[in-house]
Specification:
Length: about 350
């Protein structure tokens, strides 16, 4: 039997989510973050649906190349910038913009002799301690960059938040204050907010917001789904039921005999597993839908197959559609049962899954 695991990408949801992001951003420009193959949804198809964005954010030059090859003419920002001097030529050729976060990158720029001015985003580390320059260096770095003929004078100042999804922590307010203090009086646009900050921290809105998760309808706040905050999930992951077996009370199901049937019951087998990106860490009890009925993972997720408790789905038949996540079953609920976040689930859907799309 051919594999039936299918990820359907809802282009209308992507478009509607961008409209809602724009409304929340209140006039700020929107960078649609499409790294990691658009959070697993497919770079080209998502960029097509998100073409009204003011810029795209990517993690690699290769993704910038894919977007240019698909005909996009927007601004494209490479979020971790150049790794080597040869990247600068490639970025100019493709008209990509570079986030600069480290002295090694500054040295590459300072070693250049001319060239088309490159657009630069200067990343300051205000407390996340991953990428970025010390904020007290903002003035010095800005002065060095504007002095370079090969750098465009309109430098965007940016920072990234560590905990903007924690609406009752003061970390984001402290990072915002640090950023505003360090950049006070410097010319140029500001870009602070990711999805969660767009929702929870309006005072951190600069001239740009950089939004990923919300565009895909994914939650950015603990205990909330994307739909809870007005966004539509952009992916539905489905497969088919390939067997239904009656299993006796006390019998065990699957690898490691991890699930013991509490009564005589129907156990369904769905054609999906961790080889497709359904998380092996999903525990027994993780919700699934068979047709319109609820069902639950029972026993360990295997590579190709998933065993299901069908006691609440008595009408289930072999061949029925099984939904793993989508608008009717938030990926956030699955993530919670698997000890992860919804972002990791959509990013993890593997290449053997058939991708299709609906909407235009
Ligand atoms: C991934 C990323 C974003 C987008 O984050 P979301 O939580 O998906 O909105 C924004 N800025 C930077 C620098 C990123 O790496």
């Amino acid at each position: 039997m051919s594999r039936s695991a299918t990820a359907t990408i809802h282009l209308g949801a992507l478009r509607a989510n961008l409209v809602r992001v724009r409304a929340l951003a209140e006039g700020a420009k929107v960078m649609a973050v499409v790294k990691a193959d658009a959070y697993g949804h497919g770079l080209e198809r998502c960029a097509r649906a998100l073409t009204d964005a003011d810029a795209f954010g990517v993690a690699s030059i290769a993704d910038g190349l894919r977007l240019r090859a698909a005909g996009h003419r927007q601004r494209i920002v490479v979020l971790s910038g150049p790794d080597a001097a040869s990247d600068l030529a490639e970025m100019r050729r493709l008209r990509l913009e570079a986030v600069i976060h480290h002295d090694s990158q500054l040295a590459m720029l300072e070693a250049e002799h001319g060239g088309e001015p490159l657009k630069v985003w200067l990343n300051l580390d205000t407390g996340m301690h991953r990428l970025g320059f010390a904020p007290e260096r903002a003035r010095e770095l800005h002065a060095r960059l504007v002095a370079l003929p090969a750098v465009d004078k309109a430098i965007v100042l940016m920072t990234h938040f560590a905990s903007s999804d924690e609406f009752d922590s003061d970390q984001t307010a402290r990072q915002t204050q640090c950023f505003l203090g360090a950049t006070h009086g410097l010319p140029g646009e500001r870009a602070l907010s990711n999805s969660a900050a767009l929702l929870g921290w309006p005072e951190a809105r600069g001239e740009w917001v950089r939004v990923g998760g919300l565009l895909y309808g994914l939650s950015v706040a603990e205990g909330k789904t994307g739909a809870d905050v007005g966004f539509q999930p952009a992916m539905t992951l489905t497969t088919r039921l390939v067997a239904i077996n009656q299993v006796k009370r006390g019998e065990r199901v699957g690898y490691g005999a991890a699930y013991e049937c509490p009564e005589d019951m129907p156990v369904g087998v769905a054609a999906i597993g961790y080889g497709d990106g359904y998380p092996r860490s999903a525990r027994s009890g993780t919700p699934v839908r068979v047709g319109d009925a609820p069902a639950a993972v029972s026993g360990r997720v295997s590579m190709d197959l998933l065993t299901l408790d069908l006691r609440q789905a008595p009408a289930a038949r072999v061949g029925d559609t099984v939904t793993l996540w989508g608008p009717a079953l938030p990926a956030e609920a699955i993530a919670e049962h698997a000890g992860t976040i919804a972002y990791e689930l959509t990013c993890g859907v593997t290449r053997r899954v058939l991708f299709t799309e609906d909407g235009v």
